[in-house]
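Changelog-adjacent note: as of this version, every example in the card shows the full chain rather than a window. The one below runs 923 residues end to end.
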Amino acid sequence: MEEHQIHHRCDGGDGHVTEEEPKGLWARARKYVYGNALLVGILSLLWLVIRTGRKPSRINYPCQKAALTNVSVFMGAAALPIAARLPRYLAPGRAWPRLNRFVKVGEVVLAAGLAVLLVVGLAGRMGGNGGRSHDEMKAAAAGLKAVEMRSGEAGASSIYVAENIPNQSEYGVNTLINVMDANGQDFFKSDRPGGGGAAGPGGIIGRDDIVMIKVNGEWRWRGGTNSDVVKGLVEAITNHPDGFTGEVVIVENGQWDSYMDNRADNQNPNGCNAEDITQSYNDVALMYAAKGHKVSVYDWTAVQTLSVGEFGGGDMRDGYCYVPEIEEGYPKFTTVYGTRISARYGWWNGSSYDNGRVRFLNVPVLKDHSGAGVTCCVKHYMGFQDLWQGTQNAPHTPMINNGLFGSVMHVCRYPDLNIVDAVWVTPAGGPNGPYASAVRANKLLASQDPIALDYYAAKHVLLPVSGNSKHNPDVAGNTFRTMLFSTRDVLLAAGRQVTTDEAMMNVYTGAPPDVPPATAFDYYLAEGCTAYGYETWVLVANPNDEAATVSISYFTDSGCRNADPITVPPRSRLTVNAASCIWEQNAGVRVGSDRPVYVERAMYWSDRAEGHDSTGTDAGAAEWYVSEGHTADGFDDWLEILNPGSEPASAAVSYYTPGGTVAGPTVSVAPYARSTVHVNEVVPSGDVSAKVTSDRPVVVEGSLYWDSRRGGNGSIGVTAPATDWYLAEGCTGWGFDTYVQLLNPGTKDARVECEFMTGEEGADPIGRTITVPAGTRRTVWVNDVVQNKDVSTVVHSDEPIVAGRSMLWPVPGGKAGHVTNGMTAPATEVFLPEGCTAYGFDTWLLLQNPGDADVTATVTGMTEGGEESIGTFAVKSKQRVTVHVNEYYQGNLSLKVNATGPIACERGVYWNNRGGGTCSTGY
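Full-length structure tokens:
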């Protein structure tokens, strides 16, 4: 009876015995599990065959092993019931009671065993999430703060961490370089005197070096190195302070797959790790190649199976050279520019090797790894080596247990710098990195010690996010620890300075700010930038009979950086490039001196397509006014607020429009730092002036950019309104448009009279009267009053106002322009620190005589070699005179004007056939 209960049969009418539909929980579960198990097994087998392809050694890769586990488990799970039913198909109508009992027991035992196998197999190969959900890991990454460390031991390894990486991750590279620079490691190698600007004799990248940037191009999405980070590195290298003449090649051996995007078989159209997911490594290379730099991609995956000899032995083929003593191979190849590179011996010049010119940047992405535990600097060398033991087998076991990649590093190519991309990290499920699995940690880390960097990045970045002990290098028996420590031991035995001891690590997470030195005289310039293609030059004129010792400090977004003191000879001028001290940063400027000097700042951008400049001030103030501003027609309006003091400043901004006053933001400015306010965020469209009120003395400038930065202007503000203003420059002919801005910050309407003085002898000034309501701004278009003339302006008001003047003119691609405030009174002596009559620059001196008597002006140039006489010029009453300084001197110079009566002076500089221009009043 029991047999019939277990195997109830019925006659289907044709003599064949058929089984009833399965009944009970076990029967139903068995039906669905076996069916689905078989399907998963078949799909896994297909994956295994396709991804392994023609390279059997790929079966050792983690994803292939996971697929093999699936095949074994699921196909095995289906095999027993198939075998059990086979006798019934061979001998229908016969009962098999013992077999049936055996099958049932066997199914239970096999199912349990396979479940254990599945858990163990996949847990070891596919990783886990440490019990955390994706949202929990995302939150942990968002709140993660890097841990600083200081070692008092000699020979400690230094690690540099840049945090708060912006969405445009390429700019994070600049932050990283600055952290390195501020803590003793220059990125750029340079022999220039004084170093600075992240450059010095101990730097890493020379101006003519051949730089290999090793990326992780084996995986798509967030599994590969961030191409924005690669772009930032290429941008930095090609902007070497000494001028880059070398070559950059982005390299990878994807082993089983590659997405470098430079060949037909490695395309990656929309799966990149970048803000723009279509931006591949090859796109980055082509971007800089189009600018004239030697930048390219070489995919070592294409030559990984080719065992070749060295260039020095006459073998010019690309491929891998085998090193018997370490049983490993290294790449040698020729770039698209014909440069022959041996990863072991360096650049082959046709007759010998030059290893000193080749630099290797090891740039892995930080992520979980199913086999090795963590992908970082050591594991990243899997994409460097090949030909292990002369085969195509992947050396996973010796990599983990024997420190194989330590031998590869030491013998074949040790990294000059390791940079860990932790902008996006994959804390679970790696090495694959789908977008949905990654979390943003916003960090870049660098060290010349790959072991210390792996230890720190895993323990203090990846582990706090994942919560998975497999990422903890302190856990004994941990696969990652085994790999890291075995590699460490090999490198230590080879004499390399590496460590896994936190007591031997210095970890720097920022640039400790300096304190400006105490000096007798101080001058301040709020605007300045050496990033985003900007140049900033500080001009110091010394009118004294004795040399001046000058100390320049740069007030960056993160604090003060002091440059080395310089000497300005008597009655001369000196020009200082801000990039010689600070690399790729926003910065205001403080000039300290032991004697009174005059300072000005010039800025250029877009390969000097345009620029602006401004004089400085010798003190901060609680109130500042900026008359010019515009936020319509594609203009971007900015205020720069510099805090010269040792305490934080709170600055409130108010805006004045033609329609009235608009409240702006209140910003906090750290000591010895500067903050920037984007006016467009509050006043999105129209003319606008600004007032800044601070609880501590600050310095304020305004700047405008338009036509996608094709044009721009900028000027320091003024600290108080006045009833009289003098504007020496102006032109309404030859394509120039001249505007006078009138700001009335008071509570009463102002009646303003403008007098326009031309350079025509005997011509009377032309007047215009305008009412400026209280709390508003008005603009006078001078071309509407005076046509086709050089023109100066005198502004008189019955109420205190602020007046400035801007000029625009057409250039290819848009408009160029400049702006300046007026002088509140004419003077008999005026100093103008900026001026250049060489290198394609034209300098013009504008002299305005608003008085009733003729005057004579004597002009002297303070050059880098001392004083030079420019000439003496007569300026008649109510007239304007223009002096083309190029006709009298060639070179850099400041100008000093001495007059027999009060006059107003400005200086205009134009270059590139008026493609750009600046203008400023004097002191």
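Structural remarks: The chain has a mean pLDDT of 90.
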